[in-house]
Amino acid sequence: MNGRFDSSTTAFEPPEDYRLGIRGGPLLPSAVRARLSPAIARDIITGEPGQFALFYSDVAPTGQRFAIALALAGLAEQIPIISVQRGRLRATSDVAWWEPVDEADASRGMLASSTRLPALVGHAGVVSNDPYRTLAILRDELTDVPIDLYPPDLAPQQRAWTERIFFDLHAAVYRAGFVTDQHEYETEVTRVEHLLSDLDHQVQKSEYLLGNGPTDADVWLFTLLIRFDVVYAPSFRLHRYRVRDFPSLHDYVRRLYRSPIFRITTDFDAITRGYHLGIPILNRGIVPVGPDDLFLR
Asked: What residue range is the signal peptide (predicted)?
């Protein structure tokens, strides 16, 4: 590993006073209930396996991002990764599968239900539901990881990309879907389309955004792109282009989807149901049929 890892400078977080101007969307810093302290992060990493668990929903991109990141970091046994829809994720370097949760994890799941997911939960309650710095703080406590999603030598580039991914994709798709002013809507559409075009050029150069290995920027981006053609394009008023209209970007998503962890944590049925039944303005009492994953093979 080159350089020194520092979560305070690597992880992107939007300004405390940033507002979406709409209801819903990504959790913002001002709404975070619990932030992970370095001391608790140290306990999570160095303590007995299973003392803390991640609870997340298959519907939301941030939950999938956390699940993928912990699994790639080799922490699936140290920190049980639990989907509230499908159970506990087990993983090795080349295979992943689901198992039912045990009684202890089911009890902790009740604690997790009191806050917005994803959340890290101990026996006494939620220790973090911060979507911005939690993963980086955990990485701070690791001396060795099979896949380093926060390589220190790429920190400035990663932070720049994750900032764009947040403002120009994660926040922008929600604003495009739910703002009520035509000009604001068209501004967000342009923002999203420019980013997709820039990403298409970027991934022509290498297998991943920043070189030959995945970073947190890739994981965050994947969880949004995998939902784009399925939900954001047809239902969030972004239907001029799809990911499939950007050849290099489409190939990039397909490559990531072939990885067992990326693929097993993608549940199109949960995503489709969650968005169309869980967002009041989209809920017409009907769940759209599909999709399959043929466009990713």
From this structure: none
